[in-house]
# Entry
Amino acid sequence: MKKIALSLFLLILGFPVTVLAQNNANSEKICPSQLAGKIDTIASRREFTRSRWGILIETRDRGNKLYEKDANKYFIPASNVKLMTTAAALQTLGIQERIRTTIYNDNQGNVIIVGKGDPTITETQLQDFAKQLKNKGITQINQLIADDSYFQGDTINPHWEWEDVQSGDGAPINSLIFHQNSLELILSPQRLGQPLQVKFADQNNASQWQIENQSVTVGKNEAEFVEVGKDLTKPVIKIRGKLQVGSEDESVYVSISNPAHYFLQEFQQVLMNAGIRVKQLSVTAKPQTLTQELGIIASPNLGELVKETNHISNNLYAGVLLRLLGKKGSVNPNLNSEEKGLEMLKITLSQLGVNGDSYYLKDGSGLSRQNLVTPQAFVQTLRGMSKSANASIYKDSLPIAGVSGTLKNRLKNTSAEGIVYAKTGTLTGVGALSGYIDSPNYEPLIFSIIVNQSELSTAKLRNAIDDIVLVLSRLQNCQ
# Structure
């Protein structure tokens, strides 16, 4: 049946022709000889006239180059940096590594809690600690001391942007972390025109903060957004944004300014609830003299931490992994923990076959706009890990298109669903996606796609990147 006749037939039956066109495009097979033209058409769309694209596509096993565009040029990579951080962590620290937090006494009625950066601690772990202390017969603590000395250097990266530092995305990274060093606020729409209702997930925090609420409940057809910030000179949280009438609650996160003290306050409350009185709290950045061990808790293994880092793009987890890297190996003793981690990352990636001149990093999460990475560096990292003993752990830590993580709602019901394992990356004006494609009709692929210097919305950048991925997912051998 001719195309026009088929369209008319479908219209008579009530089927929209646009659906037919989309399904045809989604199932169209593409030969390698067509690949460059298809990708160039997407990257050269009018809206990208002033933007920069960096793209590299190679076969995974043979390393055959299928397409490249400025693959050796620097780009701001956003959270694709986590691909490098997690690769180095798996290779250097090992999958079974766990982060331990320990409690000691000093024979003077004081209790010292020593942290090593476990990012998973919540009330549950603190209650476990309290139970261990009760089992030791402890009912009173003269001074509860937080030893926050394991990581050296600033808890906030100086190269992060101001808006990130205020939110949970830029939470400080230290040796004793509670609830990922951020406060959760729950925003709920009210009647049209009314401010959003703001609640603390942990009501114990409510009395310590003042809320400046400049949000509003809007109609069903209006755009939604929420922004959270804080005043660094006083305990004030600022809420801006719009949610539609009847929409679901939205959680936002505010970073904690003094994380070790926050940890102690929460631990003191847990101890009091368990019947253990605490007279005084103090924080030290100097290692303490430790005697008797009273209790210990441990994080999930490193494989689980890496999966959390890549799956939901957790910045704090990435920062912890980088600092743990800095505790391994012989590096410059004059550097802080984050800088040491970056040195160890470079050493480890070099062993994987990544050119050290192909990237320049200032953090392990990708928040810094001073990070510069070539698409080639990401492809080399992905290939090196595909040949390593940690290949399956690494690949499985990545979001899957249309299925999980930050790709759960992307590329659904397309030829890419379920076969693309990739790390997302987003900053204002920046979009990135790098990973693996298990093509059903072609060889397995490794790809890196980055777009910079764009004024377009995040959604438009993602759509264009996804269009390229769809092309790759339809590759087939053509004789």
About this structure: The two ends are 27 Å apart (CA to CA). The longest strand covers residues 210-218.
